C-alpha cells in the first residue's frame, strides 16, 4: 500500500459497501455472510473439477488450464466490484485481493507454488479507463497479490485499442478480445508459469486471448485467478 493510500485510509477510513461499518470496503462479518465460495468447479460450465481445472468439455474454448474463481458476481461481490471500478474506491482492492489469495492458497501449497515458478501478470486495463479511474483495476490487484503470495509481479501484457466490454453481448466480447493484447516484456514470461489476474470472468474471451499470446511467447503454463464469475 502506497503512502498516499495510507494517508487516505487514515483521513477517511473506507466504509463497508454492505453494512457501512468503518474500516474496510467489505468487513469480515459481511464476507462471512455474503461471499459464497465458487468451489472446485470448471469456471465455464460449473461442473465439479479437481483443483478447478477447465474440464475436458470446455477445454476447446481455449484459455488457462486452471481458472480459480473466488465467488459468483452477485450480491456483495457485485457491489464491491462496482464500487471498486466505477465508484473509484481503491480501498476495495484490499479485501478483493485478500479473498483471491485465500482462494488460490486453498488449492496450492507453498511448496507447489515455489516449484511452479509463477509470475503474476495482470490483464491490462484500457488506457481510457485508467484515465477515468486514475488506476488500473487488475494491475492494483496484482500488486496486492504479489505481496500477499510473495510471487513476482510484472505488467508483461499490453493492450491494443480502447474497447469497453461492460454490457457487450457475448459474441461481441469474443470478437473484441481476439486481437486485444501484445507482449511488452517477453523475457519475463519465457519458460515461466504465468498466473493471470483479473476481477471478473464472463465468457473467458479475455483470458483466452491473453493465454494464447503468452503461450506463443514461450510461457510454460498459464493459469488464472479471478475474483468473480459473471452469471
Report on this model:
By secondary structure, the chain is an alpha/beta fold. It has one domain (39-229): Rossmann fold (3-Layer(aba) Sandwich). Helices cover 39% and strands 15% of the residues. The chain has 9 helices and 6 strands. Strands 1-6-5-2 form a 4-stranded parallel β-sheet. A two-stranded antiparallel sheet has the order 3-4. Strand 5, helix 9 (205-216) and strand 6 (221-229) form a beta-alpha-beta unit. The protein is globular. The protein starts with a helix and ends with a strand. The relative contact order is 0.16. Mean pLDDT is 87; it is low at 171-178.
Provide a compact summary of the structure.
By secondary structure, the chain is an alpha/beta fold. Helices cover 39% and strands 15% of the residues. It has helices at residues 3-11, 28-34, 75-85, 93-107, 110-116, 127-133, 137-149, 170-177, 205-216; strands spanning 67-72, 118-122, 157-159, 181-183, 193-201, 221-229.
Distance between the termini: 32 Å
Summarize the biggest pleated sheet: 4 strands, parallel
Total domain units: 1
Radius of gyration using CA atoms only: 17 Å
Q: Please count the helical segments.
A: 9
Q: How many β-strand stretches?
A: 6
Question: What secondary-structure arrangement, pairings included, does this model have?
Answer:
Blueprint: H1 3-11, H2 28-34, E1 67-72, H3 75-85, H4 93-107, H5 110-116, E2 118-122, H6 127-133, H7 137-149, E3 157-159, H8 170-177, E4 181-183, E5 193-201, H9 205-216, E6 221-229
Parallel strand pairs: 1-6, 2-5, 5-6
Antiparallel strand pairs: 3-4
Helix pairs in contact: 4-7, 8-9
Amino acid at each position: 500500500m502506497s503512502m498516499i493510500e495510507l494517508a487516505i485510509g487514515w483521513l477517511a477510513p473506507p466504509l463497508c459497501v454492505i453494512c457501512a461499518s468503518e474500516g474496510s470496503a467489505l468487513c469480515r462479518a459481511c464476507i462471512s455472510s455474503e461471499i459464497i465460495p465458487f468451489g472446485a468447479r470448471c469456471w465455464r460450465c460449473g461442473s465439479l473439477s479437481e483443483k478447478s481445472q477447465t474440464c475436458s468439455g470446455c477445454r476447446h474454448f481455449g484459455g488457462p488450464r486452471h481458472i480459480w474463481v473466488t465467488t459468483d458476481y452477485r450480491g456483495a461481490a457485485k457491489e464491491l466490484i462496482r464500487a471498486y471500478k466505477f465508484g473509484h474506491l481503491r480501498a476495495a482492492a484490499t479485501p478483493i485481493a485478500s479473498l483471491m489469495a485465500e482462494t488460490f492458497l486453498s488449492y496450492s501449497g507453498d511448496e507447489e507454488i515455489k516449484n511452479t515458478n509463477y509470475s503474476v501478470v495482470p490483464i491490462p486495463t484500457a488506457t481510457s479507463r485508467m484515465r477515468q479511474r486514475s488506476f488500473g483495476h487488475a494491475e492494483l490487484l496484482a500488486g496486492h497479490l504479489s505481496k500477499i503470495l510473495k510471487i513476482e509481479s510484472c505488467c508483461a501484457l499490453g493492450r491494443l485499442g480502447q474497447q469497453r466490454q461492460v454490457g457487450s453481448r457475448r459474441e461481441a466480447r469474443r470478437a473484441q478480445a481476439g486481437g486485444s493484447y501484445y507482449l511488452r516484456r517477453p523475457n519475463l514470461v519465457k519458460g515461466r508459469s504465468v498466473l493471470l489476474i483479473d476481477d471478473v470472468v464472463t465468457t473467458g474471451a479475455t483470458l483466452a486471448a491473453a493465454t494464447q499470446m503468452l503461450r506463443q511467447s514461450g510461457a510454460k503454463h498459464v493459469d488464472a485467478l479471478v475474483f468473480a464469475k459473471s452469471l
